[in-house]
């Protein structure tokens, strides 16, 4: 889902290898940081931010595999910290771009998904959000072309 939006940011890169890497290394944090930066600084920062964030993810995953089982006993409610991180990132992104659509589809996707399943809630909610984004994109594109498909 992010790669559709972040493809826009990778356009700033002229090197095809750099574009491909930036899309490959895309994380929630990279997307959040890129959307909160001013347009002028995105070209210069997308590669270093992608490199740093992917390196951090690999390092943290490696450390997590090694000490994960013992860490959960030492730090209570560690799983709640990740939820808080995403809530803070979403809030910061909203404060930066002032758009209701991303938050609206997330809440609507969650509500719809919770009506159908509790075991696969996240997967179903993300799928619903992706579908809503695609439908909105097709609708906007159709509005731009002046409904030329009706002929």
Describe the structure in your own words.
With 151 residues, the protein is mostly helical. It is globular. The chain contains seven helices and no strands. Helix 3 runs antiparallel to helix 4.
SSE topology sketch:
Elements lengths: L1 H9 L5 H9 L3 H9 L2 H36 L3 H20 L3 H16 L4 H24 L7
Helix pairs in contact: 1-2, 3-4, 3-5, 6-7
Question: What's the short version?
Answer:
This protein has 151 residues and is mainly α.
Report the total helices.
7
Q: Please state roughly what percent of the residues sit in beta strands, choosing from under 5%, 5-15%, 15-25%, 25-35%, 35-45% or over 45%.
A: under 5%
Level of helix content? over 70%
Kindly provide the radius of gyration, computed on alpha-carbon positions and rounded to a whole number of angstroms. 18 Å
Give average pLDDT, whole number. Answer: 80
Outline:
globular
Gap between N and C termini:
32 Å
Order of helices and strands: HHHHHHH
Major sheet summary line: none
Low-confidence stretches: none
Count of beta strands: 0
Report the structural category.
mainly alpha
């Amino acid at each position: 889902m992010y790669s559709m939006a972040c493809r826009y940011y990778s356009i700033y890169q002229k090197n095809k290898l750099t574009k491909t890497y930036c899309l490959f290394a895309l994380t929630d944090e990279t997307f959040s940081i890129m959307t909160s930066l001013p347009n002028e600084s995105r070209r210069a920062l997308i590669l270093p931010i992608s490199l740093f964030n992917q390196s951090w993810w690999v390092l943290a995953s490696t450390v997590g595999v090694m000490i994960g089982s013992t860490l959960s006993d030492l730090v209570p409610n560690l799983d709640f910290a990740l939820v808080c991180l995403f809530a803070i990132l979403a809030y910061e992104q909203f404060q930066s771009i002032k758009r209701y659509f991303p938050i609206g589809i997330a809440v609507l996707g969650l509500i719809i998904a919770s009506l159908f399943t509790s075991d696969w809630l996240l997967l179903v909610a993300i799928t619903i959000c992706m579908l809503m984004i695609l439908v909105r994109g097709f609708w906007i594109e159709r509005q731009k072309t002046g409904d030329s498909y009706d002929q």
